[in-house]
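Instructor's aside before we start: the two examples that follow are unrelated to each other. I chose them only because their records fit on one page, so don't look for a connection. First example below.
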Amino acid sequence: MQTCLRSTTGAKSFFQVESTRESFATLLKSCARANDLATGRALHFQILHSGHNGDKLLDELLLQMYGKCGSVEDARLVFSQMRHPGLSSWNMMIAAYARNGHLGHAKNTFDRMPCRDSVSSNTMIWAFSLGSNLSAVKNTFDLMPERDLRSWNSLVAANAQKGDTHLAKRAFDRMPARDGVSWNAILSACLDNPDAAQGIFHDCPDRSIASWSSVIQAVIAAGQIHRAVEIFELMPARDVWVWNAIVTAHGASSNPAAAKKAFDQMPGRDVVAWSSLIQTLLQSSNHFATAEEAFQRLPARNVVSWTMILLARSQRCDLAATKSLFSAMPQRDLVAWNALITAHAQCYQESKAIFDRMPAQSIASWNCLITSLSLGKNTETARQIFDAMPQQDSNTWAAIITAYAQNGRLDQAHEIFQTLALQDRQEQGQEPQEHRNLAAWNAIIAAHAQFGNGADAVALLHAMLLEGSSSPSDGSFLGALNGCAHAGLVEESRSIFQAMASDYSIAPRLEHYCCVMEALGRVGQLDRAEELMAAMPYLPDEVAWVGFVGIFQIHGQVTRAAAAAQQFVDANPASATAQVLRSVVLRWAASGAQNREI
């Protein structure tokens, strides 16, 4: 024990407390709560040199403190020097191992126990659930001679954590009694099934903030933002987490104004709340100034908030502002350096100079350099960088595919994608190296959509789904829908749009709705496009409004185009884009150019 605590020698000279059993116990509990290992070790040193060395209560509190502070070796030494460890000491040692990822040692300690109680088995169930070992959870539960409420709750929670809603519900239904923890555990199992979550929530006899938060989380995950807000308004009390969830949900639904309103109503705002608001505002080009204002008001900025604004400035091609902010940053991470490279996309020499100045470079840094070169129409240099990389990942291949596609070289992009397919086949049976994963599929789908090859984009999406090596993302469907929009493939767009929600539980975003609207407009189904614009559960942004006006314009519908432009102005009176677009449409109408494109 003293060998492990040599670093605290001399602690007695600077850390003096009243040497009573009660004062030591109080301070050890405080160290465990605060995760204060240094102070805990100093206390341990004093206990060793006091009259309380070997006290069972203090030994157990030391064991608990070391386990919670992550020092498993110290906990093990305390346990090994206990003369007659009781059941509670054995359980604490198991918990210390489990909490710090030593599941094998936890199981060995459990097997060596001279006797066990329900706490012992419950602790092992908890340990196995941390390792997502459901079969061990079930075996331990089945072998228990007696099960208490915590045992049942642990079983439900373990299945919920693993995502097995059926087993979680079956265990929940078998419970002889339930408490608030039971109901919250089964609610957490239904986060991907909002209907089931709402049904369970309706039956819950005693709803805590955690219960309300779980059902709101399930509804938000399904894209039912309005329903989430309705439930939120009914809550008798709210914590910071659920406020942040509502702010983020409004952002995900492309409604930054509602996000800002919810943020302004928050009774207490932490760094997460401010970061959520800034990230939400940055998703809309209309609210960049408001995001900058929020950043300036942020009471305590961290590297995340600095980097979010830096990324936004770099994506707006505001080179001077990006460089100024980067220079002002008190701390810079790899993301910040990568954003600065992206901001210099039009100048390879500057990008490369920044890359060379980086204190450390990751694969993401190399990928960012390739992306910046592709934006600068410097495909050949991008390929040279690609070939010179010490290591490549799937995102690297996606970046080079995009580089060729963005510069009009679809054949080369597709050739690289096919090369990935060949590498995947050659590596079967070897250590897996995921090359043609989601990023590569999304890149090639988007490339064909960009070239107007809607049928090919749809075919590639179907090929990805059939291959099954990568689960689709909302970006996969967006690429295919974008191809449908360019080619006017209405039925294909409708089928893809329905499948993403019903078959893959992916909530459509504003961009997905806009693609379907554009597909309808391109083939002249203007009434249906207008109905979709009015019915979609998102507020249109500038891109959506411009597209909406455009579908009437390309069919010579002057009056309807002018009315749509006016709606754009009414919805966004401060938008310069809205004012300019309305002026152009009115001039076009006045000139009588019924069939001329804007």
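Example two begins here.
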Amino acid sequence: MEGTVECRINKLPDSALLHMLCFLPIKAAARTSILSKRWRRLWTAIPSLAFDEKDFPSRQRSGFSLDGTESTDLFTIVNQVLLNHDRFLRSLCLRLTLRNDSDRRVLGSWIRHAIVVNQVEELSLQISYSDRSSGLYELPLHLCDCRSICHLKLSGSHFCSRPGREVVLSSLQSLSLHGVHSTVADFPRMLDACPQLEKLVIHNCSKDVTEDVQISATRLLSLSIKGSVLGKIKMIAPSLQFIDYDCHDSPSDEDGGLRKVLVDDTSRIRSIAACACIFRVLGRHGDGVGSPKLDELKVIVLRPCSWILRVESLLSLLRISPSLRSLCIEDFRNLSHPFTDAAYESAGLVLMHLQNLNIRCFSGNEEEQKLVKHILKAASSLEYAFYKANKGVEHPQFNDLEVVAIHPCSRELGLEYVASLLGNCPVLRSLYIEKCSSLSYPNDDAVYESVVRVIQNLRRMSVESFNGTQSEMKLVKYVLKGTPSLELVTIDVASMDVLALSVINELLHLQKMYSQLDLKLLCTRK
């Protein structure tokens, strides 16, 4: 049998074997060199290489061997693999620490070889330093024809195009910068070198001076800025569709958020996931002359930050977003609510197309209730609504809600809470409890009775992650006995291993007892 398997594997072409080796850690891939003469150097032609210094605990002797006879260090291994690799390289990922100028020179030789010889498409560098006195590592891209590079991810390093040392990344589609701290000139020069750039990520970066800077990226589709101190940057990005932004500003700064990263043209933006300061600025100018147009905006995710967003600004934003389909407010406490009913009503027309609503940290005060009420009333096309309420709050009234999915996040979500929610859904038809085992069950039978009392019109019920505990069985029995309108009940057990034989027999008995309805027992999880 072993000979047959070996023969079948050896009949595969090199391309298939190399594809399989791509899924192995570099050490495991290297050990295949002992299988046969054909395999001896095959692993050195892997089209995707990743080297992480955590796999090589010592820079002296790691105990890892390329041929099983000699141990060597990380830099020697990368030299042997990369500098002897003369085929196409789809991706190269390096995670290492630079200790001296010699390490920097060696790293430069690897990068040049990967670009010039291997025509690498995706290059990822995650660099840390034992001594930062030499400054941030700068990639020697000006020495290479970089047209093969389509994706570049840099952490703790950068590149710069200067007169006489020009960098041209003519095929680059995505650029990710993490932990880059440099001068104001570097960012526009980086982007000037990337005329085809479609995705830009700037995380935990900063620049040293406060002058305003203008960056042009005419083909840019996606922009993500998080945890970065950049001063004022004006983006000329007429094709921009997706913004993901978290501010790094003090609430005392009147020009926070989008005033720090100004987007020249917002007409094509389809999704904004950002903290309150961006929406504060957009909403503030939403009704004025020259206000931004968000005709294509379909998704809004409002994240918490130190800013407080007035409801007026949110409603102004909704009025300039006629195509909005999905609204997520991650922290209701970031909204300042006092406003007139007329203002709430004025946002109704633009909410009529809303399909998804997600509200978290709902406190249940009067103003929050009012806002939710108007959103639900205006959103006539609403298909899905999720909200995470703080413990003990009063739920909104869901007079037209027919489907409820309950996803307990912790044991704090008790059956009493579920009963109070379902009591505000008078036309409920379908109930899904996604983590039955995570609910908190009381000893009081009156709570179980209260659940049944408010779901008299229920037709379909699905229970997932069912462990067969006494409390879970009690809930199922109460629902089956007290809900005559039920047509379908699905019980998906967490694992057959956790169910006692007595529980299985009891479930089968319930199937026979309530033969008038469709009671399905499933085990979809391994």
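Confidence is low (pLDDT under 50) at residues 60-71, 250-259.
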